[in-house]
Amino acid sequence: MSCPICQKDTLDRYRPFCSKRCADVDLGRWMTGSYAIPVEDNDEFSEDTTPRTEDTERPH
């Protein structure tokens, strides 16, 4: 198996990476949003931000 960052052979200690550096590079990419899981926008399920009357008036 090769490291997904630099393509070197992996080490068991850092698997699937070859080193702590490559593991940190990968983590940094996730944290900055470089990696993203694509989603489809579906208008049918979009949120309505307008408050409804029955939600705002609750009996005590």
Using the CA coordinates, give the radius of gyration. Answer: 22 Å
Amount of beta strand = under 5%
Q: What does the average pLDDT come to?
A: 83
Counting helices, strands and paired strands, the structural category is mainly alpha
Main sheet attributes: strand count, strand direction, barrel closure: none
CATH class value of the domain at 1-35: Alpha Beta
Uncertain residue segments: none
User: What separation lies between the terminal Cα atoms?
Assistant: 63 Å
Percent of residues in helices comes to 25-40%
Describe what you observe in this structure.
The chain is mainly α. The protein has a domain at 1-35: Erythroid Transcription Factor GATA-1, Chain A, CATH 3.30.50.10. It contains 2 helices and no strands. It has helices spanning 20-32, 53-56. It is elongated, with a radius of gyration of 22 Å. The chain starts with 19 loop residues before the first helix and ends with a helix.
Gist of the model:
The protein is an all-alpha fold.
